[in-house]
Each structure stands twice: as structure tokens, then as C-alpha cells.
């Protein structure tokens, strides 16, 4: 992410889209997340237009965690999400053999998307964000940590 305008566009996208609507995440929450200096945010563009973004956390126990992936409504089902995800995976696999993400139980379209791209559900966090919904912890791996050599 290069500027405040991109953060504003991304926050508006999140605040007006699922799963963030159901999770009751508003513009302020999304904007604060997108401008958090500990996050890496990569913007997808077509021409000069922002078409989506992916947010990656490379710190902590789950280094390589995809915190958010969002695509503008008019660009969905056109491969933008797949390209953003693949970009994030390449970034993560330079430092970690695992990519982690959570997908909401009420978001079957997103679950199917990640399954198609070889993500495996490795756990369920019941009532994690909101009562009555789970976050499904998913992982894509290229091997165990003990055998992994970071790319320098």
C-alpha cells in the first residue's frame, strides 16, 4: 500500500462487503487494520484503478497469516482474488513453509475458493469473532518447518 487514499478505498471495500458486514467490522476498524505498520498490504490494480488487496502478517506464531483478501465487486470471479492470493503465497513462502488464513463458517463461497487452491481446514474456532459463527483456520504448506530453508 502506497498511500492514505488506497487505505480509504480498501477500508470502504471491507466495511461494505462480507464477511466484514456480518462480523460487524466498520470503516474505522478496517482503516486502522489497513494502516497498521505491522501489516503488509499489497494492492491489485488494473490500469490506475484499485481492484483489490491482500493483507499479510509476517510476525508472531502464525507468521505467514493472510489477514484479509478483498476484491472489488465488479472484479470478482475474474481471477483477481487468485492472483492476489498467489502473490501473497510467494511472499510468505520466501520466509515460511506455511500460509495460514481464517474463513468464516457463514462464507461457503470463500471456503470453496480456498479449497480449490489447496488450502486445508486444520481447525475450527467456535464463537471466535461473533457468537454463533466459527472461523475456520486453513493452511497451505510446502513442507515441515524443520526442513524449510528461507530464500535470501
UniProtKB/TrEMBL annotation:
Residues in N-acetyltransferase domain copies: 1-143
UniProt entry tagged with the keyword Flavoprotein: no
Top-level taxonomic group: Bacteria
Gene Ontology molecular function, alphabetical: acyltransferase activity, transferring groups other than amino-acyl groups
Pfam families for this protein: Acetyltransf_1
UniProt KW keywords: Acyltransferase, Transferase
KW Disulfide bond (keyword) present: no
Protein name: GCN5-related N-acetyltransferase
Amino acid at each position: 500500500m502506497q498511500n492514505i487514499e488506497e487505505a480509504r478505498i480498501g477500508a470502504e471495500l471491507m466495511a461494505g462487503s462480507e464477511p466484514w458486514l456480518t462480523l460487524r467490522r466498520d470503516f474505522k476498524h478496517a482503516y486502522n487494520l489497513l494502516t497498521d505498520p505491522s501489516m503488509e498490504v499489497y494492492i491489485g490494480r488494473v490500469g490506475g484503478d484499485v481492484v483489490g488487496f491482500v493483507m499479510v502478517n509476517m510476525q508472531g506464531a502464525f507468521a505467514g497469516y493472510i489477514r484479509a483478501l478483498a476484491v472489488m465487486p465488479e472484479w470478482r470471479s475474474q481471477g483477481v482474488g487468485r492472483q492476489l492470493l498467489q502473490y501473497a503465497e510467494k511472499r510468505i513462502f520466501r520466509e515460511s513453509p506455511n500460509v495460514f488464513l481464517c474463513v468464516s463458517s457463514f462464507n461457503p463461497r470463500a471456503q470453496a475458493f480456498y479449497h480449490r487452491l489447496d488450502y486445508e481446514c486444520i481447525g475450527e474456532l467456535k464463537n471466535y469473532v461473533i457468537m454463533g459463527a466459527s472461523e475456520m483456520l486453513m493452511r497451505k504448506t510446502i513442507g515441515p518447518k524443520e526442513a524449510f530453508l528461507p530464500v535470501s
